[in-house]
Amino acid sequence: MTRISLTVDGVRYDDEVEPRTLLVYHLRERLGKVGTVVGCDTTSCGACTVLMDGRSVKSCSLFAVQADGASITTVEGLAAPDGTLHPVQQAFHDRHALQCGFCTPGMIMEAVDLLNENPDPTDEEIREGLEGNLCRCTGYQNIVRAVRDAADALRAGRRPTAEEEVGVGVPHSAAAEPRVEEVPGEAVPRPMP
Amino acid sequence: MTVTEERPAGEVGSARRRKEDARLITGRTMWTENLSLPGMLHLAILRSPMAHARITRLDVGPALQAPGVVTAFTGRDVADVQGSLVCAWPVTEDIVQPAHPPLAVDEVRHVGEAVAVVIARDRASALDALMNIDVEYDELPPVLDMEAALADDAPLVHADQGTNRAFHWVYDSAQAGAGDDFEQVARDADVVVRRRYVQQRLIPSFMEPRSVLVDPTSDQITVWSTTQIPHILRVILALVTGVPEHKIRVIAPDVGGGFGGKLQVTPEELIAFLAAQRVGKPVKYTETRSDTMIAAHHGRDQIQDIDVAARRDGTVLALRARLLANMGAYLGLVGAGVPILGAYMYNGIYKFRAYRFECTGVFTTTAFTDAYRGAGRPEATFAVERIMDELAAELGMDPIELRRRNWIRHEEFPYTTAAGLTYDSGNYEAATAKAMQLFGYDDLRREQQARRESGDPVQLGIGVSTYTEMCGLAPSRLWGSLRYTAGGWETATVRMLPTGRVEVVTGTSPHGQSHETAWSQIVADQLGVPFEDVEVLHGDTRSSPRGLDTYGSRSLAVGGTALVQACQKVIDKARPIAAHLLEADPGDLEFSGGAFRVRGTPEGEAGKTLAECALAVFAAHNLPPGVEPVIDADATYDPANFSFPHGTHLCAVDVDTETGRVAIRRYVAVDDVGRVVNPLIVEGQVHGGVAQGVAQALFEEAVYDADGNLVTGSFADYTLPSSADLPDFITDRTETPALEHPLGTKGVGEAGTIASTPAVVNAVVDALRPYGVTDVRMPCTPERVWQAVSTASRKGGQP
């Protein structure tokens, strides 16, 4: 067992974890953060995407111990404390960018990351940027529209974002953020709760 | 029929944002895998790595010693009690129905078949302990090729059945009295075009892996499952396990997509049920994606031999379809019926005089097949729309002109086809004209000509698909005549709460289709209550005891109609109460805007609202004599006919003849799904449906190797299209209401998938036709396209 400390959606958690525990199972089964879901076992679908220190990661491709000391934002922590939706969430609703909604938590978090990196993306850049997140329901078109709308809303500064509230996800320099190496799919051990 | 513009006159027709979204975009969704109960145990399944083998040794003893393990058992251990999974659609009297035990007993027949289970205190312990199970197999010959499987000396999937032929099913228009004899008509034709098409095997690939939690600790055994069919599941669990139906409660909480893939009663559901009964504690099983790929049912996998006979002027005369349909190792819940559902659609929108259909179901040592979005109808539509293009090429005719000469004209409805179905309404002319205009058909044809003449290595191809489909899957009598064992009705309940709010119960079971929003819109209009005041309940046999669930684009057409009828009953029941309160004659009252008023009274005048009637029956102090103190109502609707959405899809592709790469340049979908309750939802369904059809055309294929291993066993190998692989789709609608249903809706869930696959492949082949290419097998990957060009070029084809 290894002791780790994580800040998830603004709350700090100290836990003993088995080294082989994947971050996503730590979030879901230990911390009760079931808003983040598991869609595959080869890091292909992106349903488990969260922000780690402001950058998107597939939480099925990291061990919980690799996130020690990090600040994690999940879809559950994206809205403002008063419940005001993040512009990406709002745009997904307005543009009907989800149907069954299973890919949505990861898709939204990846879109947040995309817009942090590129506040004014073209449709093609949005499509390329979301390539690692699979959706089976929407055909992606409304997702692209939603991300475009969210980009406009964010640039216009219409709503304070949750990242700004909790101090993550704001534009950052590469030097300030440790680069997180993703574990290749075949190296991922069997999941451990 | 006239085409009408969209004009929302109330909630119905307006692009309401969805009620469902609030929980889905904030991570507050109740997926089955999120559930945890006190004392809950975790189940893991050992699956066969062999396609076909005798189990010579299987000992779970070492697994029982592993930490955290509570119990473990094999198929042999439960052979006497586990029963068999059910084929609910025995399509012929003499269909071969091999036993389908949830856990294999002594023999495995496909990679991924469940062999043994471990139940442990946590998921990791269960998975770890699987490694300790001692198992040995004695390999038997795999059976993979359908044609080889039918040879006399072929190895058998089920030795005790003596054959790999599951069934042979025939429709003949002459025998059915719906047309002439194929052979006779074809003899007199000027031209007969014959083609073989291969519908590759697909994996439905819902995003939420399947999960089931069974709690045996309360009076009713409660089953949470990622299912499209909670009601059907309950009936079958009762029939298979012997537990009385009223002692089982099934809940489909939020379900993350299905596409037919969760229209199944699965081995895993029965195994979890059995396990929970044995240990007396809640047991949860959640599969990995790799499990989904090898063990959940697959779709399509047919070989189609198609003949079309026509006159030189383009008039089509006769059609024949002969199919081999791969059942896999066992018969799924409705798998045998999938090609039969397609049988009625091969003639498409065309006026054939004669039609013959034959289908042989074949057992192979692969995962069993069953419904996948469209279920039989995409296969049929593909075949007819592809061969119409081949006929057009043969006759030197524009493919749209050929269709125009043969389709049912709008003034000819209702029209009974050679397949014996009566299409109630449609306007193929209007949809096609609109699609051609949006597409810029003539301009693209000119550009295509120019690029052909210039020898451009990137050729432009144009594909068309003018499809129809039978949906709103319902008519129970028809189902009965096709030997399907269930009905097709649907039910709704409207409860008027004392505070004026409305609870609606539907027997349909959404998993992404937005029923909570659409049903609220319908109720808001029917009862004159605010959209926000309606709560839609579904997917729990305790709150919605009756229903036939969601598949076949049926929920709105059938369940929505039941809802309208239930609303009408509420109004009828409230009328005498309102009259009593208003001291008026019930016959003098009219109901509008949520209130009863004496006829002729202006809207602003006081009347009695439905909410007041609901309160009046709650108190029941002052009701007319003999009136039951309730205005809630149920309605169950069973239509006499299907509904028939239709449309025209046009696809332009750039095909690089040097690399084989296909890029969709423009895609136009004009669909006629009848009256639209919510255009936003309809557009979303079309986008997603088209994407899945495009995926069959260009990207996806489940591949088994020569030993019967699934090569495409993960999302890394089974190539679902990503956002970067798909274009924007241009969508529009025409609106010819369905005459069968009072709402005028037809269904939209499957339309896009049915329409788009042939449109895309027609475009690819059209691009390459100058090279002598007449077909490219799906998926049209760069390799296959390049091979097609190379092979044709070697044979002398030139651009």
Give the SSE layout.
The complex is a heterodimer of chains A (about 190) and B (about 800).
Chain A: E1 2-8, E2 11-17, H1 23-30, E3 49-52, E4 55-58, E5 71-73, H2 87-94, H3 104-117, H4 123-129, H5 141-156, H6 162-166
Chain B: H1 21-24, E1 41-47, E2 53-59, H2 61-64, E3 69-74, E4 107-108, E5 114-120, H3 123-130, E6 134-139, H4 146-149, E7 165-172, H5 173-176, H6 182-187, E8 191-202, E9 211-215, E10 221-225, H7 230-241, E11 248-251, H8 267-279, E12 283-286, H9 289-295, E13 299-310, E14 316-328, H10 337-343, E15 354-363, H11 377-395, H12 399-406, E16 415-416, E17 422-423, H13 428-439, H14 441-454, E18 458-468, H15 476-481, E19 490-496, E20 502-506, H16 515-527, E21 534-537, H17 555-582, E22 589-592, E23 595-598, E24 608-609, H18 610-619, E25 633-637, E26 646-656, E27 662-672, H19 679-698, E28 730-733, H20 751-768, H21 782-794
Parallel strand pairs in B: 1-12, 10-11, 14-15, 20-21, 27-28
Antiparallel strand pairs in B: 1-5, 2-4, 2-6, 3-5, 7-15, 8-13, 9-10, 9-12, 13-14, 16-17, 18-26, 19-20, 19-25, 22-23, 23-24, 26-27
Helix pairs in contact in B: 10-11, 11-20, 16-17, 17-18, 19-20
Protein traits:
heterodimer, A: 193 residues, alpha+beta, five-stranded mixed β-sheet, 30% helix, globular, B: 799 residues, seven-stranded mixed β-sheet, disordered N terminus
What would you say this structure looks like, in words?
The complex is a heterodimer of chains A (193) and B (799). With 193 residues, chain A is an alpha+beta fold. Chain A is built from 6 helices and 5 strands. The longest helix of chain A has 16 residues, at 141-156. Chain A is globular, with a radius of gyration of 16 Å. The two termini of chain A are 13 Å apart. In chain B, α17 packs across α18 (610-619). With 799 residues, chain B is of the alpha+beta class. In chain B, α7 (230-241) links the parallel β10 (221-225) and β11 (248-251). Chain B has a 7-stranded mixed sheet, with helices on both faces. In chain B, strands 7-15-14-13-8 form a 5-stranded mixed sheet. In chain B, strands 18-26-27-28 form a 4-stranded mixed sheet, with helices on both faces. Chains A and B meet through α2, α3, α4 and α5 of A and α1, α3 and α19 of B.
